[in-house]
Design goal:
With about 140 residues, the chain is of the alpha+beta class. It has one domain: 2-Layer Sandwich (HIT family, subunit A), CATH 3.30.428. Helix content is about 30%, strand content about 20%. It has a 5-stranded antiparallel sheet with strand order 1-2-3-5-4, covered by helices on one side. The longest helix is centred in the middle third of the chain and has 22 residues. It starts with 5 loop residues before the first helix and ends with a helix.
Length: about 140
Amino acid sequence: MSAVCPLCTEVGGELIHYGAEWRIVRVIDADFPAFYRVISRNHVAEWSDLSAAQRDAMMSAVVRVEEVLRSALQPSKINLATLGNVVPHLHWHVIARFDWDSHFPQPIWGQRQRDSALPAVQRLSCSLPALDERVRKAFES
């Protein structure tokens, strides 16, 4: 654990699942309410810092979150990203994207494309508590 790393010292969002190797949180973001992170419990910066078994397990978790988002929300696209330029702690972004969202088709860190009178969370076909529960249940095996 690093005392200066925010993903070591803070949860990083709404905690959904806490496993042996990673935790899953929903990022609190008004523009992208269906934005989850799979965060390594170990303070490592790079994908290659994990063993092959740890990489397989973490990618399996990323895929499980993606499958829940696709099933629950039928998004236009799922974005997966692991950057770590700002926070060098291994984590994957799993983001449901919609053709109506504020930045689509640009990345969420890109330029805003549109505004909506209706908040993004109200445009989802599933409530956030129900979505969180579906993600949580995907990891109860």
